[in-house]
């Protein structure tokens, strides 16, 4: 009894207790029962059919079948009840008139509601002015008769409810407009980023062309200033002119002779 009271006091009720039956083993047994019994799975003796299996439960495995949603969809207004609340399969926003209120604007969304809303707003302002005047009147002699200010307050509440309901009906239109604006802004940002990337690539290509051109000019200049170096035949040694007489006399060159010749060339 205490558990039931605790469950009723909980604003978010726990799921039904049979959710613990949806184990991997039980679902496997249900699949095997379908395969062996076919359409007679509801009336078949599951213990005889699954005699070669272990841990076959005493309750019917067909309880684990998913609910037939197609049965619900066949109804004109498809709905289901969960924890005492009714939910519609196809969400439908009820208008103020369908919800039992006094709707003062047209229900058809294709009709322009602005004239009706302007009339409601003017009536609201006029009723508010009348309310201020009625507060100065003495209370009615008949206690059962409601005071005049009460009638004005009720009418103001009705007008305000119509304004709020009409504004709420425009929520989908507003959401669609905001989504279009966000997508348009994202497209503009991507275009700007793409343009900046192209400009950066063009600048890098121009810089590479300048570098290639400068490298080519430097190579050409160096090739023009290189002195003519005599070609040495294969197997021969280039002898400086100052040391050629000694070589011709078959005199052997020493390190001292080379250093002397280098001092003279300075």
Automatic annotation (TrEMBL):
It holds the Pfam family Med7. The keyword Transcription regulation applies. It comes from Leucocoprinus leucothites. One of its GO terms (cellular component) is mediator complex. One of its GO terms (molecular function) is transcription coregulator activity. PANTHER family: MEDIATOR OF RNA POLYMERASE II TRANSCRIPTION SUBUNIT 7. Signal peptide: none annotated. It is found in: Nucleus. This is Mediator of RNA polymerase II transcription subunit 7. One of its GO terms (biological process) is regulation of transcription by RNA polymerase II. Belongs to the Mediator complex subunit 7 family. The keyword Transcription applies. InterPro entries: Med7/Med21-like, Mediatior_Med7, Mediatior_Med7_sf. Keywords: Activator, Nucleus, Transcription, Transcription regulation. Its main location: nucleus. Component of the Mediator complex, a coactivator involved in the regulated transcription of nearly all RNA polymerase II-dependent genes. Mediator functions as a bridge to convey information from gene-specific regulatory proteins to the basal RNA polymerase II transcription machinery. Component of the Mediator complex.
């Amino acid at each position: 009894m205490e558990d039931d009271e605790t469950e009723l006091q909980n604003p978010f009720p726990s799921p039904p207790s049979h959710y613990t039956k949806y184990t991997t083993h039980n679902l496997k047994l249900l699949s095997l029962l379908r395969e062996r019994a076919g359409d007679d799975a509801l009336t078949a003796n599951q213990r005889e059919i699954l005699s070669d299996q272990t841990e076959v439960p005493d309750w019917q495995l067909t309880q684990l079948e998913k609910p037939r949603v197609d049965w619900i969809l066949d109804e004109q207004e498809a709905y289901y009840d969960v924890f005492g609340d009714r939910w519609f399969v196809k969400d439908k926003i009820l208008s103020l008139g369908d919800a039992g209120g006094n709707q003062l604007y047209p229900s058809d969304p294709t009709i322009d509601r602005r004239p009706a809303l302007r009339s409601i707003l003017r009536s609201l302002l006029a009723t508010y002015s009348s309310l201020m005047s009625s507060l100065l009147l003495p209370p009615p002699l008949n206690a059962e008769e409601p005071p005049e200010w009460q009638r004005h307050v009720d009418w103001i509440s009705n007008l305000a409810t119509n304004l709020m309901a009409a504004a709420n009906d425009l929520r989908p239109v507003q959401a669609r407009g905001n989504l279009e604006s966000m997508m348009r802004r994202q497209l503009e940002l991507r275009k700007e980023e793409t343009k900046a990337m192209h400009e950066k690539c063009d600048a890098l290509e121009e810089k590479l062309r300048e570098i290639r051109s400068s490298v080519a000019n430097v190579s050409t200049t160096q090739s023009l200033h290189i002195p003519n170096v005599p070609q040495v035949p294969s197997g021969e040694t280039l002898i400086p002119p100052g040391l050629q007489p000694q070589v011709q006399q078959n005199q052997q060159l020493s390190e001292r002779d080379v250093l002397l010749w280098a001092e003279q060339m300075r």
